[in-house]
Structure formats: C-alpha cells, structure tokens
Amino acid sequence: MTRYVALLRGINVGGNKKVPMARLRELMEGIGYTDVATLLQSGNAVFTSKEKSPAKVGKQLEAAIAKEFGFEVAVVIRTRDELEAVIQANPLPDAEDTPSQFLVTFLSDVPEPKRFEQIDAAAYLPDEFRLVGREIYARFPKGVGNSKLATVLGGTRLGVTPTARNWSTVTKLLELADAPQSRS
Q: Would you tell me which CATH number, out of the four given (3.30.70.1280, 3.40.50.2000, 3.30.70.940, 3.40.120.10), belongs to the domain 2-83?
C-alpha cells in the first residue's frame, strides 16, 4: 500500500470547476482509495492505494473527476515519501520564514531544460526561484498576487502541468499524510 498526495489544478477558484471536498473524498473512496483526507478547498487530498504507479493513480483520478463533475481537472501526484523529499530539498530555506510568500510549484514532469533556461531570472527580481527535479521553489517578497513570475511559473510555458501550493500547505499535507490511518 502506498500513501499518495493528489494536487488538483485549478478547482474552486473564482467559482469555476467546483469540486466539494466531501464529494471528492466519496469519489476517491468509491474508486478504491482508502484513508482519504482532504486539506482546504483547493484540491489537496492524501490517500492510500494498492496501485504502485503514481501515473496510473493520477489518470484514474482525472477520469473519475471528469465523469463525476463533467469537466477535466489535471491531477499531479506525489507519494508521501516524494513530498517529504520536496520539503527536505528546499533550496530557499530562508523563504520558510514567510510561508505565504513561498510557493512550491509541483510539475507533472521535469521540464525540458531549454524551456526553463528561457526564463530570465533577473527580469523578475526580487522574486527568486529554483528548479529541483519536478518542483519549482519560488519566493515572492512582494506577494504572489503582485508577481509576474508567478504567472510564468504557473502557466503552460514550461510544457508541463504545474500546480502551486504555499509552504504552509506543503508542510500540512505531509502532516496529514503521516496522520494515523485506519488499516482497512
């Protein structure tokens, strides 16, 4: 059994793609996931599955959401251990002091290096970012809402599906993944 974290992209934002968390939990349990728990209304879920392939889990959940709610939602999956590694790999440790200004953008895959290299870091200062594997760590000292970099990192420019969470949410997801589970 593997403990997973599902990060749904772009739901419950501005009244679009409404996915109630109680219904999401029911849906996930209905397709065989156990120990399902959600965090916030922005599409964060932790659960256990017998399936060993994160890619299969993501596709299964995307298909179930599309069937149930009538719209497509991209789902980025990480195992519990991958999420812990994301926290441990943080290349911007001082950014943890202001978690609302510190985002981790989870990517569906590693972006092609040339796509990432086309982002001129100096053009977005004082914002800063680092790519580590399939995650982009970014600090926005003047706030995420005022950042042009946040738009670039959250868009399609990198050729992969991105979904961002602030540092508080990332660490709370690991706590939720580690919470005692029923052994059903």
A: 3.30.70.1280
